[in-house]
Design a protein that fits this description.
single chain, 27% helix, Aminopeptidase, 150 residues
């Protein structure tokens, strides 16, 4: 079972960067530094799922308002997918949100991950997700999804 913790060290940050690139962007032919182009304003929160000290999953979120968090990136190593690690990362974020002023977590999910988000309690939300030409080439579209935090 993976433990979920807040990323606090430069070494863990580097491992998260590598994992995100390997899982999310390298398969699409995107450059290693692409994550910096996806930044938005707000206080960042990064969670890591570790097994035996190795990061096998990561979640990057940003406080976009006092009562709202946006999940920007979520990735699990290919060999560890479908083992509850993504669910554990979402659970960790929900625990943090529930003891804060957060009332809504939202994400702009890839069509390929909308089923996962639905399975952990997210619902389609109002609004139109932006199109990204780089992703469209690969058949990837986006949907806005949300989860109300109680």
């Amino acid at each position: 079972m993976a433990s979920v913790e807040i990323v606090r060290t430069a070494e863990d940050t580097a491992q998260v960067d590598e994992l995100l690139w390997l899982v999310l962007w390298q398969p699409l032919g995107l450059p290693r530094n692409i994550r910096s182009k996806f930044n938005i304003d707000g206080e960042k929160l990064e969670l890591a799922a570790k097994i035996n000290g190795k990061i096998v999953g990561a979640l990057v979120a940003v406080w976009t308002a006092e009562s709202e968090i946006e999940i920007r990136h979520l990735a699990v190593e290919t060999g560890h997918q479908r083992k509850g690690i993504g669910r554990s990362l979402i659970g960790g974020l929900c625990r943090i949100a529930s003891v804060s002023t957060c009332h809504r977590i939202h994400t702009i999910a890839r069509n390929t991950s909308a089923g996962f988000f639905g399975g952990v309690g997210f619902q389609p939300a109002a609004g139109r997700a932006p199109d990204h030409p780089v992703f469209l080439v690969h058949g990837i579209t986006f949907v806005i999804m949300e989860k109300i935090v109680e």
